[in-house]
Amino acid sequence: MDVFDMKFAKVYPLLIAKAERKGRTRDEVFEVTRWLTGYSDADLEKLLESEASYGDFLDNAPSLNPARLNIKGRICGIKVEEIEDPRMRDLRVLDKLVDDLAKGKSIDKILR
Questions:
Q1: CA-to-CA distance for 51 and 7, rounded, in angstroms?
Q2: Does the pTM exceed 0.85?
């Protein structure tokens, strides 16, 4: 199954759990998600209760932050900045933001 077809309500909690295992909070994951996508906390809560796919989450983002294109680094061994598919790149940018949270970086440094 393609990750974009998976339910947002199944995938996103895994990102939250990853951050929480490293002492970060759900609110911090929401904060980096808001920065990236323009969704409000209420929007994210609705998505978590919906049947929306992960692809729907990305495709319907209210306002993708143009600064997301400045995010660099590796996630799963792949350089984010070298991913050509814009949808996959945005997905990996969110992974990278949460990964940086889990590594203990401050929100200020993550949201550059």
A1: 6
A2: yes
